[in-house]
């Protein structure tokens, strides 16, 4: 998935990268102005991002799937990663315990209660590596 424009995020199988981004109005204006003035050749490089190892690829797959209408297909996960989700991430059982998700033979889906808390679930599932990278990023 390729993101285009100021603040866009892009994903490949093994990379997650973005342009600079901000959450405050002043930071957004400054970044937008710098983006508009950026020379074309500088768009050939990603300046913010990281390479996804096998665990990060699994985590991203799980998060993106859980946020889809269909939920996480457990058979597809097993085929793609040659492993069982319960063994890889036993902490996901907490979603069931807290009624944030339901699980059947083939899928794991967020409940309505879980969907309402999906931003929190996403952040909860970030790896330590991603949390450290986020802390090190200087937000504008």
Report on the structure:
The chain is of the alpha+beta class. The protein folds into two domains: 9-51, no CATH class; 54-128, Arc Repressor Mutant, subunit A. Helix content is 45%, strand content 14%. The chain contains eight helices and six strands; from the N terminus they run E-E-H-E-H-E-H-H-H-E-E-H-H-H. The strands form two sheets. The protein has a three-stranded antiparallel sheet, with no helix packed on it. Strands 4-6-5 form a three-stranded antiparallel sheet. The model has no long low-confidence stretch (mean pLDDT 87).
Blueprint (SSEs and pairs):
Elements: E1 9-11, E2 15-18, H1 25-36, E3 48-51, H2 54-66, E4 72-73, H3 74-81, H4 85-88, H5 93-97, E5 101-103, E6 107-110, H6 112-116, H7 118-124, H8 128-136
Antiparallel strand pairs: 1-2, 2-3, 4-6, 5-6
Features:
single chain; 140 residues; alpha+beta; 3-stranded antiparallel beta sheet; 8 helices; 6 strands
Looking at the overall shape, the CATH architecture of the largest domain is: Orthogonal Bundle
Gyration radius, to the nearest Å? 17 Å
Distance between the termini: 25 Å
Number of helices: 8
What is the H/E order? EEHEHEHHHEEHHH
Q: Percent of residues in helical segments?
A: 40-55%
**Which descriptor suits the 3D outline?**
elongated
